[in-house]
Amino acid sequence: MLDRTEQGPLPDAPFEAGPRGAPEAAGPLPVAGAQAAGMAAMRPAARILFVDDDQTVLAVSSLMLEERGCYVKTAWRAEEALRLLSRERFDIVFIDQFLGPVKGISLMQQLALMDPELHFVIVTADPHTELAVEALKKGASDFVGKPTRPADLLGSIEYVLGKKERDKKQRELVTGLEDQIIRKTEELQQVYFSVLSSLARAVERKDLGTYGHSMRVSHYSRLIGEMLGLGEEDLKHLRTASLLHDIGKIGISDSILAQRGPLSGEQARIIRTHPQEGVEILRPLHQYNDSLPAILHHHERADGSGYPHGLAGGDIPLPARIIAVADAYDALVSDRPYRPAVNHEEALQELIQCSGRQFDRSVLGAFVEAVRKQKRAPHPLPGEEDRYFRPGEPA
Amino acid sequence: MKTIFIVDGEQETREAVEACLNRPGFRIVTMDDGNAALSAILGGERVDMVIADFGMRGMDGLELLARLKEATPSTPVIILSGRVSIECYLKSLSLGAFEYVTKPFEAGDLERIVRAAFRDGTSGRILQRNVQA
User: Fold this and answer.
1) Cα dist. A373→A94, A223, A359, A376, B29 in Å?
2) A394: closest CA among A238, A287, A216?
3) Are the beta carbons of B93 and B100 closer than 8 angstroms?
4) Can you give the pLDDT at residue A222?
């Protein structure tokens, strides 16, 4: 804020420092010098631009306002006003409605485009209600009649500065509320997601050897999704689906999940219900609806021999095809009760052998290309998933 | 009638592939090296699909694939490979192969892949980026 007591009188020449040059905007300013002593509390101080084609009016008004501590510039034509405004910043522009060829109100609309925070007062020798209404409708903050008395001008300035302050406070309030809503929504989503992540981990505790599986699958899925050029929204649904793809196993008995030997026909049938069970668990949570197809179909196979619906090729939703590859890779490189882990390269080779049979060729191609140079596809460690799976934020 | 070129240096494989695809609607032409296949195609012979072995002597499957994609980009090409190679797989895809099939394969699998290639084999390359060996 400008403190004129310390800086002395403001220069008369327009500032050349560039648009919106050096002098800082004035709020209701403390007014300098001896004049301030008597009437400081009452008197508004502001940066004023006065536009009128009558030089006498300009001279008188500017003298009067300067005496009362305002910084004043005058323009007697529209072009001059535009030029001044492109060089320095003002709080209030007084515009005569009858400016020769240009109407004050249209000049006001033009100037408003240059600085949305500018306030305008329309001045007219012919003050009638229709004009006042039009001026206010089109964005003027106030309206005064001519000849202007000092009290009218000062009153108007005080009113406009007050309005400016109120507008600012209101804007701040609205912005603050918006921020709060966004923050609270994010917090809620985080809570939802944490609950579901815990559920996913609970499943992993039951399903021997799969600790950390869901978050690794989620991570690989994201790699593939990015390689395939999915948008942020699709990646978000993919993240949810991949983290929760096995959540339906929560209802499957521990003895089946932990079985070391081959499954009986009935046990296999029960295991195969988990995609559908997962969908049923998540269905009431509407924000996850877009992730359900990926969960339902993550055990479909490209050749149509998968479950639950036996979909083939492009009929399988893309996120489901992505999770299928990520899921199979992680299963191969992890020890399971029924077989030991294989290394990264062997896992990729096994996946490639199933290209076009079990896996979608473009999804598998993207995954292999993304991870082929690594010793193992990168993934977060157990317990680090919160760093990776913050909803609404890229992992 | 769809004409399918089977290009493989081993007679055994040619016969196995032919047996898998000996179906109504398919006309099979077998050849034992890439040069023969390429000159036939450049000479104007009609072909709807090429199934080529990766490891042939002379012009191998990848070179044939590259030349075919210049000459007749919309013809789907399936690469057969005796051993699984990650680099060869990625190269095949980046050169525009429809699929990379490892031997041995099941008859039904190969037929399904061939039919899929006829259905959507012209949809372009899978891997856009150049894969280096």
Assistant:
1) 69, 14, 21, 8, 39
2) A238
3) yes
4) 93
Report the gap between the CA of B111 and the closest CA in chain A (Å): 11
Query: How would you write A60-125 as a 3-class SS string?
Result: HHHHHHHHCCCEEEEECCHHHHHHHHHHCCCCEEEEECEECCEEHHHHHHHHHHHCCCCEEEEEEC
Percent of chain A with pLDDT over 90: 44
Query: How sure is the predictor about B125, in pLDDT bands with cuts at 50, 70 and 90?
Result: low
| pLDDT at res. A61 | 87
Other CB atoms within 10 A of residue B3 CB = 14
| Lowest model confidence (mean pLDDT) among A49-53, A261-265, A331-335, B45-49 | A261-265
Per annotation, catalytic residue among A103, A206, A249, A373: A249
Please give the pLDDT value at position A140.
93
Please check whether residue A61 is in contact with residue A52, taking contact to mean a CB–CB distance below 8 angstroms. yes
Burial of A241-278, coded b for 16+ CB within 10 Å and e otherwise, reads bbbbbbbbbbebeeebbebeeeeeeebeebbebbbebb
Hey, which residues 278-317 in chain A have their CB within 8 Å of chain B?
303, 313-314
This model of the complex carries an ipTM of 0.85
**How many angstroms separate the CA atoms of B54 and B78, rounded?**
10
Residues in chain B closer than 8 A to A355 (CB atoms): 89, 99-101
Share of chain A above pLDDT 70, in %: 83
Which residues make Cβ contacts (< 8 Å) with residue A117, sequence separation at least 6?
Answer: A164
Beta-sheet pairing, B26-31 with B2-7: parallel
- Cα A305 to Cα A313: distance, rounded to the nearest angstrom: 11
Q: Cβ of B103: how many Cβ atoms within 10 Å?
A: 18
Minimal-distance CA residue of chain A relative to B105: A353
Global pTM value: 0.65
Per the CB < 8 A criterion, the answer to whether B95 and A347 are in contact is: no
CA distance linking residue A211 with residue A204, whole number of Å: 5
